[in-house]
């Protein structure tokens, strides 16, 4: 029997169940990080969900050796992911971007050449993912010409077959490094004679703001709370990121962006980066951080100075660990050191320009958790509290859409939202709130139920004033 009565024709008992009183607000994600950047491996322009740094390495490969030399363009995504996970991030939506189409490394398996003719191509081996990650792979042919070995680092794969057809099939069935294809003109029943190196893989490192926009577009419909652009400063991508934040807010997918300054110099930050932001959803981080570079294998000193864009990734990971109402002010971050230690005067200057400054104080700490907003949402925690309330109200209200617009259903809607907001008070996100759900007759006719809320967010302590009276 349906729980909604549509018609009563046959004699009997008809029961209608009205479930509005059981509608509640489900869990709300607050620490999902979305990130875009360049990498040596992995699908391009696709969103991948990661839960650990090991997964990041497996999906996108290792980063290259960091260099500050002119025209050096390091890979950014995995290096930034390393910092996000160091900060404490646990659910990451990552998208690999590239300038153009990255190329895959290839190897050509050739047969014995006929007299006075070039050797025929029997199998084309192609790295399973575009990029430079497989350039160092070694592909060899056994003496009996029936086994192909593929070695990449500690990975070794071996495939055997009585002829080209069987070898290609075995590779496609079992390899995690390469795929195989047999040209139409190849003799599938023959045996290979040698293996030549084909093309080298390329990464498309020189990502532009346009490429960043393509990556952020992929994240637009994902349940992301914090956005990071790997390795690129606010000076370069500030306008692109702000446009993304505006579009996602209009679509009901609110989020914050954590960006790094383009320099550690105070004057440069104020002129080049601060002027690009000024938004309640944007956080500007300075200075850069010192970190170990795992690509410096065998070198005595592995520490490198990373620009503030990577400090932003670290801060985003740390922010992802905090409940919305918990301030980032005075929280420690897992940085080895800072690329610059600001004086007190420089700190005041940057804070007055709404820059989130990292300082040395029993470790590396956030001096003050602020957005770049100069109005109501200076504290990051207040912005996150309001976004949390908006998400909860949206989740709690959506099940009522399509139901009757009468006093009973509106009272149930009010009870649902009241329960959610009361929970925010108990969790100390709000000090108090006022809630009203109403509809005039004209609004009922137009299908409108009006929810009016007055919220009093909880503010964090930024200053402690001590007055001592001596007698």
What's the quick description here?
By secondary structure, the chain is an alpha+beta fold. It folds into 2 domains: 33-100 and 205-378, Rossmann fold, CATH 3.40.50; 106-197, Sandwich (Immunoglobulin-like), CATH 2.60.40. It contains 11 helices and 21 strands.
Describe the structure.
The chain is α+β, with helices and mostly antiparallel strands and 471 residues long. The chain has eleven helices and 21 strands. It has helices spanning 53-60, 77-87, 164-174, 209-219, 234-250, 266-273, 308-320, 344-352, 380-397, 407-426, 441-445; strands at residues 33-37, 47-50, 92-96, 106-110, 121-127, 138-141, 147-152, 155-160, 178-181, 194-197, 226-229, 256-260, 282-286, 289-292, 303-306, 332-333, 337-338, 356-360, 364-366, 430-438, 450-457. A nine-stranded mixed sheet has the order 2-3-1-11-12-13-18-19-16, with helices on both faces. The chain has a four-stranded antiparallel sheet with strand order 9-5-4-10, with helices on one face. A three-stranded antiparallel sheet has the order 6-7-8, covered by helices on one side. A hairpin with a 5-residue loop joins strand 6 and strand 7. Helix 1 (53-60) runs antiparallel to helix 2 (77-87), helix 2 (77-87) crosses helix 7 and helix 9 (380-397) runs antiparallel to helix 10. It is flat. The protein starts with 32 loop residues before the first strand and ends in a 14-residue tail after the last strand.
State the main characteristics.
Immunoglobulin-like, 471 residues, 21 strands, 21% strand, 2 domains, alpha+beta, four-stranded antiparallel sheet, Rossmann fold, single chain
């Amino acid at each position: 029997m349906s729980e909604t009565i549509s018609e009563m024709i046959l004699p009997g008992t008809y029961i209608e169940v009205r479930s509005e009183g059981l509608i509640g607000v489900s869990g709300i994600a607050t620490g999902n990080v979305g990130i875009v950047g360049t990498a040596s491996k992995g699908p391009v322009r696709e969103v991948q969900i990661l839960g650990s740094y090991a997964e990041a390495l497996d999906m996108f490969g290792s980063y290259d050796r960091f260099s500050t030399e002119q025209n050096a363009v390091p890979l950014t995504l995995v290096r930034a992911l390393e910092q996000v996970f160091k900060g404490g991030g646990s659910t990451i939506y990552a998208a690999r971007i590239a300038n153009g189409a990255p190329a895959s490394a290839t190897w050509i398996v050739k047969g014995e050449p006929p007299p006075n003719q070039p050797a025929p191509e029997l199998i084309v081996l192609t790295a399973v993912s575009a990029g430079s990650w497989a350039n160092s792979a070694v592909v060899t042919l056994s003496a009996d010409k029936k086994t192909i070995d593929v070695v990449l680092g500690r990975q070794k794969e071996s495939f055997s077959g009585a002829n080209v057809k069987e070898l290609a099939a075995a590779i496609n069935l079992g390899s995690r490094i390469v795929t195989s294809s047999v040209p139409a003109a190849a003799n599938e029943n023959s045996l290979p004679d040698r293996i030549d190196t084909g093309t080298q893989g390329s990464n498309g490192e020189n990502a532009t703001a346009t490429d960043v926009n393509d990556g952020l577009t992929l994240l637009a419909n994902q349940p992301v709370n914090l956005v990071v652009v790997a390795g690129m400063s606010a000076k370069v991508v500030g306008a692109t990121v702000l446009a993304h934040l505006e579009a996602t807010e209009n679509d009901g997918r609110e989020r914050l962006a954590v960006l790094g300054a383009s320099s550690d110099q105070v004057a440069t930050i104020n002129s080049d980066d601060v002027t690009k932001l000024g938004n309640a959803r944007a956080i500007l981080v300075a200075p850069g951080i010192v970190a170990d570079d795992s690509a410096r294998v065998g070198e005595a000193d592995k520490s490198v100075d990373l620009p503030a864009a990577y400090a932003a990734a670290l801060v985003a990971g740390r922010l992802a660990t905090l409940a919305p109402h918990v301030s980032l002010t005075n929280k420690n971050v897992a940085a080895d050191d800072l690329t610059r230690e600001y004086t007190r005067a420089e700190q005041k200057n940057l804070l007055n320009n709404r820059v989130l400054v990292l300082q040395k104080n029993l470790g590396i700490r956030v001096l003050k958790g602020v957005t770049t907003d100069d109005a109501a949402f200076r504290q990051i925690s207040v912005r996150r509290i309001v976004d949390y309330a908006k998400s909860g109200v949206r989740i709690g209200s959506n099940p009522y859409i399509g139901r009757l617009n009468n006093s009973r259903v509106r009272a149930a809607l009010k009870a649902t939202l009241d329960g959610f907001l009361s929970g925010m008070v108990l969790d100390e996100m709000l000090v108090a709130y006022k809630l009203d759900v109403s509809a005039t007759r004209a609004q009922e006719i137009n299908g409108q139920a009006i929810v009016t809320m007055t919220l009093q967010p909880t503010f964090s302590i930024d200053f402690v004033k001590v007055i001592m009276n001596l007698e």
